[in-house]
């Protein structure tokens, strides 16, 4: 029996492999990206990425093949763009990715690039939507990079150094989250050598082999890369849910500490900060609690990519709110990683559209942590009184300009602040 | 030293930047009972959904939302790599069988992607066979992703609906079918056109091809007139073809004029409509009324705008931007246009075409971006592209100019707000 299901796209949110692969390279500031495909696909990827990297358009190119190119090949239009890059751009690494249709015509992109005599290495890949979603594209792009560009030999690792894998600015509020993770690690005595795909240059990436440990932040993006680096360079790795909540952040640090033989004393500055902030937060929350009551929701729904959804679900139920029933939608589909016990129901954002629609329809008076997509579905279904917070893209109804992460200790304060303020605002509206 | 003034890399558009599938989608997205299948990878559906979600929030922001509006399920057949070898027609057949059972649509519209085009899938045959099996109207639109463009997909879908669902009807006096989109029936542009039609005692039966139920589509041939809502250039050609097809098949005359933009076009539009209907006096009265409306607005904004030094910056080719309406807007605003700058993204040929067009309407000096000195003296840049932050206050010209005198008044209002903004603040206002 054929078990395929064809779901309504409106209940889902994802992006294509072309965007994912481009996002990895866009996260390397001295790289340039060429989309060997139509402007439509190019603009989609560009708009997605430039929300987080506003200047990426200056190193993001498109070959614009016409119908003839699909028959006779894309060599001419590709060479034209490569000329421009050779003259004007001079990146440290160039990434050429074929869109869906172009990937089917079998052009030897690497061979064409060789003719262009560029001074930098060229990484090429078929990475259109036919190859999968954002995470699949990101991983394929990263693997292509590491396969093509050798890192320094491992040698002796520098003590207390780590790399962050599976990070991307293509996730909501990611820049703030990455900064907070780096800050937390620094507070605990670690130095982050590289964060490939999220800000590190080619030079920093080349030297990442000197780190003691690779830490995977988003497993749907980083696990494959971590395995590759372990196999090729003997670098150990640790893949955990991202650090959300005060306790969650501390657990995350302790797990890393155990692997790296860190003494408890190294956590003292972190514990001190948690203690200071907890006192401040608890006092403020108790004040509000006396007036506005408990932060209680009969139903809570979280919708985000798997690592974020599961990490936030854990912090939400163990630290931030009380809820009767907690459901989680994994926007990128069900994955194999361990699901925290505190979650009552898991749904696949890529296959459970009927269940998702009924879950949203039953969310009256509840809490939604998701994207503007789920919020629009709630509005269209006229589900009343749902407290909504954005934790995932797409976001059309909020801006975050200050340094306010969702992850880490500061993230815990920020999330509590958002939840309580929205809850109070809802109470004031007489709901 | 002369600097690049475009904030973003202005892409030289060598060919269409759109995808025909999104045109097919928009043609029927809000037609009660419709279901759309993209014979494509899943990612193509995500791209369209992102576009749809953006429109949803724009409508929400402008309070143009029709909460009762139907949105068709959008399904992708989920073409994957293996289908490029074995073909994707079997996948499409299974997809159709599934969606017929699950969504029970009144009719299905199928759009083909560029991937299906490269593979060479015979979508028409699959559609015909499935229709015979399920006894539901199924329409295959000849599109193939980026091999065609948005307009082709949109109007091809319209022609397919005409072919399939319409037959001759007895005419109903004074009923009009609007052809085109313009944000749908709740959109401010369509409201503006309806107001103009009311002057002549005309009643809008429905909007076609989008925003119409199957019953309304079947009743289109009973309209006594079709009025075009399309834009300019290629978009106008498409809508003209649609109107001509309805005239040939069902003897519905159409008012052969594009949507009126600004003062002069609205005057001409009203005068010609009056002639067509034999209601010249009504037309003259309407022209007077529109003139008064505009003069009243000019009187209230002119003190803020008069003699402001303005530079017009153009980065869109003539095919997508006809400058007449923008120059008329600036003339109405009584600003001092000190120069026109053609941005770098335009090819030499596109610049030449634009120069010839501009010289029909203005004596202002026309320069290339590199030769520019005018911006330094300008107080306001009226522009088709977001410019560097060092440029003074910027007024962004909309890609689709708003309809009628009402549209021009809204732009004048925004321009006046920008003129009232402190020069130190700089920044952009979107028209």
Automatic annotation (TrEMBL), chain A:
CDD domains: Oxidoreductase_nitrogenase (cd00316). It comes from Pelosinus propionicus DSM 13327. One of its GO terms (molecular function) is oxidoreductase activity. InterPro entries: Nase/OxRdtase_comp1 (IPR000510), NifE-like (IPR049939). Pfam families: Oxidored_nitro. It comes from the Bacteria. Residues 16-421 form the Nitrogenase/oxidoreductase component domain. This is Nitrogenase molybdenum-cofactor synthesis protein NifE.
Automatic annotation (TrEMBL), chain B:
Coiled coil: none annotated. Residues 19-316 form the Nitrogenase/oxidoreductase component domain. Gene3D superfamilies: Nitrogenase molybdenum iron protein domain. One of its GO terms (molecular function) is oxidoreductase activity. This is Nitrogenase molybdenum-iron protein alpha chain.
């Amino acid at each position: 029996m054929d078990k395929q299901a064809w779901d309504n796209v409106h209940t889902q949110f994802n992006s294509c492999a072309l965007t994912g692969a481009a996002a990895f390279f866009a996260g390397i500031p001295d790289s340039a990206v060429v989309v060997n495909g139509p402007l439509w696909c190019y603009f989609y990827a560009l708009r997605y990425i430039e929300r987080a990297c506003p200047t990426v358009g200056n190193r993001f190119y498109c070959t614009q093949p016409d119908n003839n190119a699909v028959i006779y090949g894309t060599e001419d239009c590709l060479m034209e763009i490569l000329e421009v890059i050779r003259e004007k751009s001079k990146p440290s690494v160039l990434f050429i990715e074929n869109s869906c249709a172009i990937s089917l015509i079998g052009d030897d992109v690497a061979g064409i690039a060789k003719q262009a005599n560029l001074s930098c290495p060229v990484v090429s890949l078929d990475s259109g939507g036919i190859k999968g979603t954002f995470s699949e594209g990101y991983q394929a792009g990263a693997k292509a990079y590491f396969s093509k560009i050798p890192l320094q030999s491992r040698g002796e690792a520098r003590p207390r150094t780590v790399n962050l894998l599976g990070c991307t600015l293509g996730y909501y509020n990611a820049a703030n989250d990455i900064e907070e993770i780096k800050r937390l690690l620094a507070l605990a005595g670690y130095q982050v050598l590289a964060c490939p795909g999220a800000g590190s240059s080619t030079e920093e990436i080349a030297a990442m082999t000197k780190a003691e440990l690779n830490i995977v932040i988003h497993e749907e993006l980083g696990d494959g890369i971590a395995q590759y680096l372990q196999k090729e360079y003997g670098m150990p790795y640790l893949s955990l849910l991202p650090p959300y909540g005060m306790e969650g952040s501390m657990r995350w640090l302790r797990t890393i500490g155990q692997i790296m033989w860190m003494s408890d004393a190294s956590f003292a500055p972190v514990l001190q900060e948690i203690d200071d902030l907890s006192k401040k937060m608890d006092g403020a929350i108790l004040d509000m609690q006396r007036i506005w009551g408990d932060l209680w929701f009969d139903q809570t729904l979280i919708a985000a990519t798997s690592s974020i959804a599961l990490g936030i679900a854990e912090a939400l139920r163990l630290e931030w709110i009380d809820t009767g029933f907690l459901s989680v939608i994994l926007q990128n589909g069900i994955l194999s990683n361990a699901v925290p016990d505190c979650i009552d129901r898991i749904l696949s954002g890529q296959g459970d559209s009927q269940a998702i629609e009924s879950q949203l329809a039953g969310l009256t008076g509840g809490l939604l942590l998701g994207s503007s997509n789920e919020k629009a579905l709630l509005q269209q279904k006229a589900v009343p009184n749902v407290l909504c917070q954005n934790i995932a893209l797409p976001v059309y109804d909020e801006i975050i300009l200050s340094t306010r992460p969702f992850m880490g200790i500061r993230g815990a304060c920020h999330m509590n602040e958002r939840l309580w303020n929205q809850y109070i605002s809802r109470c004031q509206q007489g709901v | 030293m002369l600097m690049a003034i475009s904030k973003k890399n202005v892409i030289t558009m060598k060919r269409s930047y759109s995808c025909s599938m999104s045109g097919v989608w928009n043609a029927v997205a809000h037609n009660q009972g419709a279901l759309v299948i993209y014979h494509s990878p899943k990612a193509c559906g995500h791209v369209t959904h992102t576009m749809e979600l953006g429109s949803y929030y724009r409508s929400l922001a402008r309070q143009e939302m029709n909460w009762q509006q139907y949105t068709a399920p959008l399904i992708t057949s989920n073409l994957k790599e293996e289908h490029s070898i074995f073909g994707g027609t079997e996948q499409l057949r299974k997809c159709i069988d599934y969606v017929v059972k699950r969504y029970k649509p009144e009719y299905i519209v199928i759009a083909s992607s560029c991937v299906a085009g490269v593979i060479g899938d015979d979508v028409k045959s699959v559609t015909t066979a499935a229709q015979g099996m399920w006894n539901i109207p199924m329409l295959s639109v000849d599109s193939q992703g980026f091999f065609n463009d948005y307009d082709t997909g949109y109007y091809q879908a319209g022609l397919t609906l005409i072919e399939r669902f319409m037959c001759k009807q007895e005419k109903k006096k004074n009923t009009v079918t609007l052809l085109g989109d313009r944000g749908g029936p709740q959109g401010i542009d369509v409201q503006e056109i309806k107001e103009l039609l009311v002057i002549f005692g005309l009643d809008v039966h429905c909007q076609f091809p989008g925003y119409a139920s199957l019953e309304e589509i079947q009743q289109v041939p009973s309209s006594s007139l079709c009025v075009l809502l399309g834009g300019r250039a290629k978009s106008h050609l498409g809508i003209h073809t649609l109107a001509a097809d309805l005239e040939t098949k069902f003897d519905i005359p159409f008012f052969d004029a594009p949507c009126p933009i600004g003062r002069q076009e609205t005057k001409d539009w009203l005068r010609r409509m009056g002639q067509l209907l034999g209601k010249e006096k009504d037309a003259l009265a309407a022209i007077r009324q529109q003139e008064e409306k505009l003069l009243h607005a000019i009187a209230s904004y002119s003190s803020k705008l008069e003699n402001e030094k303005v530079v017009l910056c153009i980065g869109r080719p003539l095919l997508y931007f006809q400058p007449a309406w923008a120059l008329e807007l600036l003339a109405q605003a009584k600003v001092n246009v000190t120069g026109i700058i053609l941005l770098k993204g335009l090819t030499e040929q596109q610049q030449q075409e634009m120069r010839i067009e501009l010289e029909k309407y203005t004596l202002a000096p026309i320069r290339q971006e590199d030769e520019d000195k005018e911006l330094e003296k300008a107080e306001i840049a009226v522009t088709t592209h977001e410019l560097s932050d060092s440029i003074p206050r910027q007024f962004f010209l909309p890609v689709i100019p708003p309809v009628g005198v009402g549209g021009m008044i809204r732009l004048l209002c925004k321009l006046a707000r920008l003129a009232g903004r402190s020069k130190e603040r700089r920044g952009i206002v979107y028209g």
